[in-house]
């Protein structure tokens, strides 16, 4: 724990110190470092003001906002926890917290807390005609597998204003339902709407376009997108994460491992531990995978023990694919599906049931996943394996064919996201 | 495996654009459109926020007639320092005086016909323009595009007067830099008059229904309007202080204007300059009329407007493909610091930018466009019906308060004793109330504007609103609405459009300066005894180019 603390502290110190050094030497600190340093400064200012003005609503809101901003940027668990505390304090202290509830809805959605997200929106129903309210309703629909309803909402919002974020939401639905060209067109349109003041958003859209290309086996296109994202917003761990996956998919294992190891030093996310472990497994190096998988699992279980739900999905996939433990996989997949019934949670449960040799149940579940019309090579691969195991050979072969049609390289290394 | 988790990543990123609390209680400024309106609690001040478009014939007639234009905007990052992601345009359209005009028939169809005629002119219209971009050395690239003498560019230093020579031999005085804000106005007073909550309360941009609260617009305070009336216990509310919006009713249930123990009304305005001590960044040009048009004798009206554009991320991403300095190149660069900066690093391709703000007619955006993002246009023909409805809505508020002060209003409020909150869905319903205002020609206070004593009629009110451009009449001194001079108190003049220009001032004609007349307020049963807005700027303007005063330190 102490070592981890030291590593994180080191990274933060480097990030902050790099800013003044830039001015002295002409060296360029990364965009990520600059943004992180700015948020740290904002948090620090808010803390100083709040020390003398503990019940100032604006300060409470700002503090919650900046902590949330930081947690979104770093993706680190400790930042999420601090953001949660700041939200609790702000909600307690604010008399008319419409903004806060909108923000808190996003926070809850990020953590898969759909019930809480809905409760937030319930408190501000007077804003129900506002696109900023409606968009969260659409996002809840996506999480609950109500894709048509979500698309209707997104289209309605876009008719009013073609903001990049809503275009990206619609693009995501198009992508997942197999309209790849339509999705890319929407992403492209979204990028046109993003200003130079918001390069991280641009990088994020590029990552989605890259990932969509990778999911279809268009590896060169994917890499070009990732590189563009890296240029647009330098030093971002999320971009490097996608790049590391890409390198693994190209079987450039040394480069992928090196990148993961670098990433993990400053961004110790359990998802990255798992990805590195999975890569070693993919390479056939179980012994090297073991410690990383152990670390990932420990973090996932710690989170679940704290009552958090955001890692249920990872736990299901982890047990199914990394540990081949069907019983545990089913347990976590079932927990997740209680919260969210959508194509991917049905798929995860089906795959867990398959791992647990419960083929009829797996068959039933994968049909629910396929009903969402999710055009995903890995979903079809799961469907194929389950049908084959259940003795439905023709269907199984058909799904394998579909998986290959979507992505001829569907059996390459990939990350559980 | 691709899962729903990606959506969650999206949520995480989307929120970054969602809410950015501004610094606490910043003073009001010009603030439009809403996407960059820093009045809202979640939007910081933005260099794309255009403040004013000034334009008038130069007093300096050496070498012929010249037009002065000044586009001012938020001084971000700071006065004299420019944002390299921004592009500014100033358009020029010299016209003969015989352009589209409203007919004498006082009907809604006359207004529609006028709008159509203006629209026809602006269909596929391509004006000349001056486009300005910046590089990291804080140099400005000034592109002159599609002028009669052609197109050309010049890179100039900022914060200094530069004379640019055109290929056809004209001298164009140019200043791009920081200045004192030439706008002098009681903005909090204006916002109090329209019960605009974001100026007084913490209102994010998303809460559209909490902007103009459903309380009658008014020039004098309403009895019981606790949300917006002056509070002696919190005198800075709406000026330097914002509160949380109280719970409960956000409307008004009273039935009369507020009067004090002496029988005086309370003015919503203070007459104080909310922009005193404030700076802007500015693009100021003094251009020979002969450079703008080959027929300066005929083209006596120079229509002009400004625009701000922000660089697209796509363009920036592609430009960052250039060298990013490493340790050695960084040190090398540092060693060579002080050498003359290269005149490079500009991105002046308009395709790489998105339009943000437009400035033409002063106060049009705040008063009639409601600062909406999609109403930022010089060719605002499609808004004509909206203007009819909006003007009538304002008239029901301002009209009765003008009458209560003993002045005559052009708005037909059926002798309502108090301001009324009324909105319209149909222009045809609103029009009868406002038609006298729309068709009356504005009166000027004297004849000083008509420097050549020509037979020039001042415009009718509605002609001022459409199109959204500054129409500089080269045969006048350019005072508003014949252009806009720096010393014009345009906010009070805009309010005067609700006066009866025929006989509203004690049976005599009112004029655009009536509300700036101190003697009027001395006699009126009102406190404080002040014109609504300050009569002059906080710093004296310069007699010579660039005319706007030096910035505050």
Q: What would you say this structure looks like, in words?
A:
- The complex is a heterodimer of chains A (417) and B (553).
- By secondary structure, chain A is mainly α.
- Chain A is 78% helix and 0% strand.
- Chain B has a domain at 34-106 and 125-183 and 277-318 and 341-375.
- In chain B, helix 8 (384-404) crosses helix 9.
- The chains are: A mainly alpha (417), B alpha+beta (553).
- Chains A and B meet through helix 3, helix 5, helix 7, helix 9 and helix 10 of A and helix 1, helix 5 and helix 6 of B.
In short:
The complex is a heterodimer of chains A (417) and B (553). With 417 residues, chain A is an all-alpha fold.
Quick tags:
heterodimer, A: 417 residues, mainly alpha, Serine Threonine Protein Phosphatase 5, Tetratricopeptide repeat, 22 helices, B: seven-stranded antiparallel beta sheet, globular
Topology:
The complex is a heterodimer of chains A (417) and B (553).
Chain A (H helix, E strand, L loop, with lengths): L1 H24 L5 H22 L4 H18 L2 H17 L4 H13 L3 H9 L8 H13 L3 H14 L3 H13 L3 H14 L5 H16 L4 H14 L4 H13 L3 H14 L3 H13 L3 H20 L6 H11 L3 H14 L3 H13 L3 H13 L5 H13 L3 H14 L11
Helix pairs in contact in A: 1-2, 2-3, 3-4, 3-5, 4-5, 5-6, 5-7, 6-7, 7-8, 8-9, 9-10, 10-11, 11-12, 12-13, 13-14, 14-15, 15-16, 16-17, 17-18, 17-19, 18-19, 19-20, 19-21, 20-21, 21-22
Chain B lengths: L4 H10 L35 E8 L8 E8 L12 E10 L12 H15 L5 E7 L4 E9 L2 E8 L4 E4 L5 E10 L6 H7 L71 E2 L12 E10 H4 L8 E11 L1 H7 L7 H9 L17 E7 L4 H4 L16 H21 L22 H13 L21 H5 L4 E4 L16 H7 L21 H6 L2 E2 L26
Parallel strand pairs in B: 9-14
Antiparallel strand pairs in B: 1-2, 2-10, 3-4, 3-11, 4-5, 5-6, 7-8, 8-10, 11-12, 11-13
Helix pairs in contact in B: 8-9
């Amino acid at each position: 724990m102490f070592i981890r603390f030291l590593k994180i502290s080191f990274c933060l110190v480097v990030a902050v110190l790099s800013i003044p050094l830039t001015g002295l030497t002409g060296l360029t600190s990364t965009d990520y470092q600059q943004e992180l340093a700015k948020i740290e400064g904002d948090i620090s200012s808010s803390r100083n003001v709040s020390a003398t003005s503990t019940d100032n609503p604006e300060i409470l809101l700002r503090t919650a906002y900046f902590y949330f901003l930081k947690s979104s940027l770093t993706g680190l668990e400790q930042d999420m926890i601090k953001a949660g505390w700041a939200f609790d304090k702000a909600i307690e202290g604010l008399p008319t917290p419409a903004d806060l509830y909108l923000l808190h809805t996003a926070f809850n959605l990020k953590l898969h807390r759909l019930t809480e997200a809905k409760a937030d929106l319930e408190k501000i129903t007077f804003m129900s005609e506002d696109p900023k309210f409606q968009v969260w309703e659409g996002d809840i629909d996506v999480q609950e597998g109500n894709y048509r309803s979500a698309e209707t909402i997104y289209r309605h919002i876009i008719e009013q204003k073609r903001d990049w974020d809503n275009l990206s939401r619609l693009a995501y639905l198009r992508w997942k339902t197999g309209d790849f060209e339509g999705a890319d067109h929407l992403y492209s349109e979204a990028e046109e709407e993003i200003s130079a003041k918001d390069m991280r958003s641009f990088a994020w859209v590029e990552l989605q376009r890259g990932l969509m290309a990778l999911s279809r086996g268009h590896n060169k296109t994917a890499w070009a997108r990732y590189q563009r994202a890296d240029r647009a917003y330098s030093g971002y761990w999320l971009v490097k994460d996608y790049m590391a996956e890409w390198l693994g998919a190209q079987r450039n294992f040394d480069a992928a491992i090196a990148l993961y190891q670098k990433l993990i030093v400053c961004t110790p996310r359990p998802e990255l531990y798992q990805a590195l472990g999975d890569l070693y497994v993919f390479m056939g190096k179980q012994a090297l995978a073991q410690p990383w998988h152990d670390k990932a699992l420990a973090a996932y279980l710690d989170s679940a023990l704290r009552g958090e739900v955001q890692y249920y999905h990872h736990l299901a996939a982890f047990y199914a694919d990394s540990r081949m433990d069907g019983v545990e996989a089913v347990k976590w997949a079932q927990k997740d599906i209680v919260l969210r019934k959508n194509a991917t949670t049905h798929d995860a449960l089906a795959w867990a049931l398959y791992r647990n040799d419960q083929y009829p149940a797996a068959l039933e579940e994968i049909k629910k996943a396929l009903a969402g019309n999710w055009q995903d090579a890995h979903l079809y691969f799961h469907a194929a394996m389950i049908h084959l195991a259940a003795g439905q050979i023709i269907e199984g072969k058909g799904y394998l064919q579909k998986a290959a049609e979507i992505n001829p390289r569907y059996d390459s290394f990939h990350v559980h996201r | 495996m691709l899962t729903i988790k990606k959506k969650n990543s999206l949520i995480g990123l989307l929120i970054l654009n969602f809410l950015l609390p501004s610094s606490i209680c910043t003073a009001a400024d010009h603030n439009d459109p809403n996407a960059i309106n820093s009045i809202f609690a979640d939007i910081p001040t933005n260099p794309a926020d255009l403040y004013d478009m000034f334009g008038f014939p130069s007093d300096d007639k050496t070498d012929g007639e010249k037009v002065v234009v000044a586009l001012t905007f938020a001084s971000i990052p700071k006065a004299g320092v420019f944002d390299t992601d921004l592009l500014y345009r100033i358009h020029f359209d010299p016209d003969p005086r015989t352009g589209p005009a409203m007919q004498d028939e006082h009907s809604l169809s006359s207004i529609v016909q006028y709008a159509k005629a203006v629209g026809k002119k602006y269909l596929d219209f391509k004006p000349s323009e001056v486009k300005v971009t910046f590089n990291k050395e804080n140099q400005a690239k000034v592109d002159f595009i599609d002028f009669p003498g052609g197109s050309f560019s010049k890179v100039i230093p900022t914060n200094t007067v530069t004379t640019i020579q055109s290929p056809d031999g004209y001298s164009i005085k140019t200043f791009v830099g920081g200045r004192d804000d030439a706008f002098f106005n009681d903005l909090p007073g204006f916002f109090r008059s329209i019960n605009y909550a974001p100026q007084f309360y913490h209102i994010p941009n998303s809460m559209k229904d909490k902007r103009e609260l459903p309380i009658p617009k008014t020039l004098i305070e309403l009895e019981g309007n606790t949300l917006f009336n002056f509070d002696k216990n919190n005198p800075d509310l709406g000026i330097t202080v914002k509160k949380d919006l109280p719970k409960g009713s956000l409307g008004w249930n009273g039935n009369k204007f507020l009067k004090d123990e002496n029988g005086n009304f309370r003015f919503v305005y203070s007459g104080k300059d909310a922009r005193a001590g404030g700076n802007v960044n500015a693009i100021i040009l003094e251009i020979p009329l002969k450079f703008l048009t080959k027929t300066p004798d005929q083209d006596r009206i120079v229509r002009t407007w400004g625009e701000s554009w922000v660089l697209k991320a796509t363009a920036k991403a592609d430009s960052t493909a250039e060298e990013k300095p490493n340790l050695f190149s960084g040190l090398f660069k540092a060693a060579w610091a002080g050498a003359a900066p290269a005149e490079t690093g500009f991105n002046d391709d308009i395709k790489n930018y998105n339009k943000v703000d437009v400035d033409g007619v002063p106060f049009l955006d705040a008063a009639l466009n409601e600062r909406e993002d999609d109403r930022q246009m010089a060719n605002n023909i499609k808004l004509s019906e909206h203007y009819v409805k909006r003007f009538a809505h304002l008239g029901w508020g301002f009209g009765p308060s003008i009458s209560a002060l003993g002045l005559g209003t052009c708005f037909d409020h059926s002798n309502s004793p108090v301001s009324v909150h009324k909105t319209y869905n149909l222009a045809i319903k609103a029009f009868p109330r406002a038609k006298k205002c729309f068709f009356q020609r504005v009166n000027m206070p004297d004849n000083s504007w008509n420097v050549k004593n020509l037979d020039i009629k001042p415009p009718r009110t509605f002609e001022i609103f459409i199109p959204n451009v500054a129409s500089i009449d080269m045969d006048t001194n350019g005072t508003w609405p014949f252009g806009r001079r720096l010393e014009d108190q345009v906010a009070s003049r805009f309010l005067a459009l609700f006066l009866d220009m025929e006989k509203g001032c004690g049976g005599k004609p009112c004029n655009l300066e009536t509300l700036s007349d101190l003697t009027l307020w001395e006699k009126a049963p009102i406190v404080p005894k002040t014109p609504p807005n300050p009569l002059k700027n906080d710093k004296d303007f310069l007699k010579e180019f660039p005319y706007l005063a030096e910035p505050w330190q």
